[in-house]
Amino acid sequence: MSTTSSIDPAFYAFDVFEETYKTVASHDIKAAVLIPKNLKPGRHPVIVNIHGGFFATGHSLFAAWFHPWLIKMALDQDAIIISADYRLLPSPGGIADQLEDLEDFWQWIKAKFPTVLQDRAPGHALDFEHLLLVGGSAGGYYVSQVALSHPDEISALAMAYPCVDLKDSIVNEGPPLGKPTVLRFPEADIPSKEEGLAWIRKKRGTVASKGELEITPYCVSLAQNGIFNAEVFEYDGVRLTTNELPLERLKGGARLPKNVWIFHGDDDSVVYLHQSEKFVDLVRAKLPEINLRFDVAEGKDHAFDMDVSVWDAYPASKDAVAFLTMAWLE
């Protein structure tokens, strides 16, 4: 069943295929589907994954940023994973373009994908009563937005070190005095401000939905120099509105799914812990009925869970995954 041109070893336990869910300017935007090999026919719980990557890179099958614990959970629970691509920034409409893509992706999952699945994997069906939504970093932002728009369609939401405050000072000013460089990049390896600007100028005007690691240093440069917001989020008259700001949506009365897990390292060098703390404080104040678990990992940096040995040694990891599994499948 695997139809992608090259499957990363991280996904060898799955049959994998991709489907186009929308087309923009003749560019196909796809979703990847991962079905555990030897999965018995029947209805299966669903995991929807939305990748991160500085809002500007990564893709639906980018193994380096695909949570290993999520892969294991899917295999343990015989779940089907649907992982989304979307337009990468910069794009003409900025964040609004990405949110439009992900709303179209969500509607495609519900309206069209069940028929696609019957064609590609006969005998398998989706149990939308048990749907888990997962995203980390920028992906944590995206899943918060999807969840705020569709709270009653999601059994459980998992947000890893989520970038939920697009107004945070790091995108306008860079890291404050005493903080490490963004992602702890060695200063000698960070492209200059001029190089970062040259890269963003070159990338503007193209539609892309898949990016690789070589883009990351330029994103680091823009953030380190305090111009990420001006050059990526709010360039050329584009302005962030309430619709693009999860914290403002929560303040305005938007709801979340009934089960939410958030985890974040307290030594995060790009999405600072206070972003999650603001989100959690608002949820507790506005939505006290939510079954919320918030784990703060002492001494851990951004994306610490991508290292299996570090994650397995993290004292809360087993209890947290057990919480999420029960919340998702209860």
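the 2nd protein, sequnce then structure:
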Amino acid sequence: MSSSSSLTQRNPTISEEPADSPPPPQLRRQPSISQHAVSQTLTSVANLANLLPTGTLLAFQFLIPVFTSNGSCEYSTRVLTAVLLTLLSISCFLSSFTDSVKAEDGNVYYGFATRKGMWVFDYPDPSGLGLPDLSKYRIRIVDWIHAVLSVLVFGAVALREKNAVSCFYPAPEQGTKKVLDIVPMGVGVICGLLFLVFPARRHGIGYPVTGNGGRR
């Protein structure tokens, strides 16, 4: 009995492991090329939607059937529709130069970008006390690029609206119809790619507000 117990003590079982042994390493799966492409495509579509201010897009969708009489335009209604599209395009262009800032009171205020900074037009204190440094919100070349892209995207949306197309082209020829089908899609793809190259950092009127005043 004593010899067997001594052998047991000299030869411990192999199944015994130290309590503090590290866990086995886990394999990390790298995203595939297709998953990465889908992610980039979704990001591009989301950024392309952000190019248009929400108020302008809603006004277009609400007013265009009224102005065009559901696509049955006469000369007077065609002129009014052209004026409406021009005003909405100007709204898209100017909205690209608006931005928002978060003051010390926790509220978000809007302004217009200038060469020296940003003019906040709804802040109650004219001295600007409580606002962050507005010089970093000054206008840049990328703002002009976004303004042009916004107008182009709005034009592509207008060309895909059946009432607007029927107003200006009630009976388009086969070649004109193909152009009206291809051009908006091409403009949308090109603007989406350019928007990825020149991402927007402003959150102006009609655009979603994210981050805080020190996001730049």
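The helical segments are 2-10, 33-49, 54-67, 75-95, 141-159, 162-168, 174-197. The chain has a mean pLDDT of 76.
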